[in-house]
């Protein structure tokens, strides 16, 4: 019996040791400058942007890890997104642009890289798209709705005490006046003009030409290439090969996908905040790059 007890304790200690070792290795892997390749070998970092863009935190964290890792010789940015909220899209764009000043960034557009997704792509050193990729959609949309008609039918009256006539412009609890519409349209066009200037600067296209393209319409990858909105037709493999050529790295250089560190608590927090953000968005006027 005593030997069985000692055996159980040794087994538990061994399990505890391996758990601690795994935790230590995980902590090392999470360090910004860590490379799993070892021996100081350079690698190509890959970051994915997928789905609507609302909360940029995880993408920003992954991109900063790439920026801070001296072994990440270049960045392969894979985008499959219809766009999203204005400021998060711009925030990601600006960080990608900063990285592109330090190391080459190849953007690989997938099925969809439109509006905010295209805005981010513009920060890359070279943009690759498939012939059938849906991209472009340079424009801004403000989506709101009015519950005033329904409220009248069920006998509910909304009263807003405001500090100025435009304070509640876009509120779902009142009908949109001509003054409200003019005011909100002005904001939409102001953001749209900033978007146009960004594309003109990043893509080295005359602003007047971008302005003519900025109708909000989607272009295929082939159309976008002819218009100067993307550089080449190809997928991730073509984008990787371009990076290798720019960096003069061998063909067997590894591509390492970089993500933010996610825990169960992070996932639950993100899910909860996304649900709350969605509910808030349904009841307020917000500007989107969709």
What does this protein look like?
The protein is of the alpha/beta class and 290 residues long. The protein has one domain (39-289): 2-enoyl-CoA Hydratase, Chain A, domain 1 (Alpha-Beta Complex). The chain is built from 10 helices and 11 strands. It has helices spanning 2-29, 57-68, 86-100, 116-121, 148-154, 178-203, 207-213, 221-227, 236-247, 264-283; strands at residues 43-50, 72-81, 84-85, 105-114, 126-129, 134-136, 141-143, 218-220, 232-233, 255-257, 286-289. Strands 1, 2, 4, 5, 6, 8, 9 and 10 form an 8-stranded mixed beta sheet that branches. β1 (43-50), α2 (57-68) and β2 (72-81) form a beta-alpha-beta unit. The longest helix is centred in the N-terminal third of the chain and has 28 residues, at 2-29. It is elongated and about 70 Å long. The N and C termini lie far apart (70 Å).
Tags for this model:
single chain, 290 residues, alpha/beta, 2-enoyl-CoA Hydratase, Chain A, domain 1, eight-stranded mixed sheet, three-stranded antiparallel sheet, 10 helices, 11 strands, disordered N terminus
Structural class: alpha/beta
Q: List the total number of helices.
A: 10
SSE pattern: HEHEEHEHEEEHHHEHEHEHE
Mean residue pLDDT: 84
Q: How is the secondary structure organized here?
A:
Elements (H helix, E strand, L loop, with lengths): L1 H28 L13 E8 L6 H12 L3 E10 L2 E2 H15 L4 E10 L1 H6 L4 E4 L4 E3 L4 E3 L4 H7 L23 H26 L3 H7 L4 E3 H7 L4 E2 L2 H12 L7 E3 L6 H20 L2 E4 L1
Parallel strand pairs: 1-2, 1-10, 2-4, 4-5, 4-6, 5-9
Antiparallel strand pairs: 3-11, 6-8, 7-11
